[in-house]
Amino acid sequence: MSRWIIGRMTSSLSSAASLLSIPDSVVYSIIRFAVPQWATCHLICHRLALVSKEYRCLQNEGLWNHVLGEYQTLTAASSSGSSSAKCRSPTRISKRLKLSPKYAVARAHQSLHQRMEYAHLALTELTHQREQPLTVKRLRAILERWKPLRVNQRAEVGGTLLIECIRARFVHEKVILECARLLIQEWSAQPDVATGSGPGSGGAGGLTPLCIAAARGMPSVVAYLLDEAKASASIAGEGRFKLWGNQHKTVAGSYVPAEWASKMLEAEEAAGVAAADLKPLRKCIELFRGPVR
Prior knowledge:
Layout: H1 2-12, H2 16-20, H3 24-34, H4 40-48, H5 61-68, H6 72-79, H7 95-98, H8 101-127, H9 136-146, H10 161-166, H11 173-187, H12 209-215, H13 219-227, E1 237-242, E2 250-255, H14 257-270, H15 279-288
Helix pairs in contact: 1-3, 3-5, 5-8, 6-8, 8-9, 12-13, 12-14, 13-15, 14-15
């Protein structure tokens, strides 16, 4: 639906007069309906502006004032002098431009991106240490410390907050499930946003959360992603996983989640892992054999 709306808007931009005749509030409402929160300025600058014959139709101060409303928390933090919210322009610009709504949006958007990187780094450190492993309380503390956040933003190293939680080491599967539930239900994390580059949701690929949960043999997480989060079982993910029975061997390739579970099961059996230890992987495969998803 959103792609259709964006397509109609870009086609109408061939006539700048038709867009200029629409009130700024209406244009903003259409954009907010087409894309998720915090993605409006990216749509305006990197998609709509590129096909506009009359670029000034997207430079209206009224339109950027509407977009700026989404960033009020960050712009307030920037004006207060918070070190985590400050962003310096790479080039010298006039004072008049610095006071414009568009520049305020750009500054707040950059600050939002930085906050997300800090949150991701804090979570990554937490999910890879044995002394203070991941817990729901610690995850919530990170989210509260760095909010507002774009939880579906992929960090520079490739992962999202949800993916880092599902990758967590030295924790019980129940903790990973509760962390995934927190991110999806309370922070609107999208279960199909993947890492790396490829065919996944939002133009990315790599491994989806469901692929990781299936390959790691976490049936409770797989069941939650499939039944409650409505994650897609048809998105293939490309990656590599170490075997539990032989850390020197890996399984690599590009498979849908059900295939990842099957490939890992075959490899673990070949490595001599006892049947009792492979029950979680078998349970994951059974979950994918349920109703058509």
